């Protein structure tokens, strides 16, 4: 799918990656160009690229068929694209129209892992745990909670497996119910992601449309170390065919 965005405020950047997880390609304008540490970059109006952050890896993307890596530029706050290792950006001018696209398969994997992370957090909170950290990278996905001293179940392997079984059942039930996933902006400008009425949290990541889009969601046995509960998990996006 290709969208052309022609009527937006001059100089503004639209976070298209937050508006539509499933948008694969867009025609848009260059709104800024620059260089940092000898590396040229370009920012486009309708930004399709999710930069690394919030525990989620960056999108793999292309500008004019040149592979790029998106990063957030601190001074301006813009998400800018730099050429992937070994490549170089084409010469671009502000106002020029370009085509941007992403590796949609990678995007959907990241969105599935991030959404599943919220779900793991949600079921952990039902046990009275508070999340203190999260990573949503493929092969490394995990949620960490503060371990309550009063939870005796966490003291031995049998108890931990019992708790893990409870978490697995809750996750499976939410996926089977196909709970809708939505986002809204709070008055202070923060973006809040909702798993229906089950859970909500401030988040700037990409997510699936509903929990029924998740498949192969698996939780390994949780580990407790130095007062923290670590729940590792995997997930993928259900085939769209």
Structure description:
The chain is of the alpha+beta class and 241 residues long. The protein has 3 helices and 17 strands. A hairpin with a 2-residue loop joins strand 3 (25-36) and strand 4 (39-44).
How is the topology of this model organized?
Layout: E1 2-4, E2 14-15, H1 16-19, E3 25-36, E4 39-44, E5 46-47, E6 61-63, E7 66-72, E8 79-83, E9 97-102, H2 104-125, E10 130-135, E11 142-146, H3 157-176, E12 181-185, E13 191-195, E14 199-202, E15 214-219, E16 223-225, E17 228-237
Helix pairs in contact: 2-3
Count of individual beta strands: 17
Into which percent range does the helicity of residues fall? 10-25%
Per CATH, the superfamily of the largest domain is Threonyl-trna Synthetase, Chain A, domain 2
H/E topology pattern: EEHEEEEEEEHEEHEEEEEE
InterPro entries: Alanyl-tRNA_Editing_Enzymes, Thr/Ala-tRNA-synth_IIc_edit, Transl_B-barrel_sf
Organism: Streptomyces prunicolor
Keywords: Hydrolase, Metal-binding, Zinc
Protein name: Metal-dependent hydrolase
Protein traits:
241 residues, alpha+beta, Elongation Factor Tu (Ef-tu), domain 3, Threonyl-tRNA Synthetase, Chain A, domain 2, 2 domains, six-stranded antiparallel β-barrel, five-stranded antiparallel β-sheet, elongated
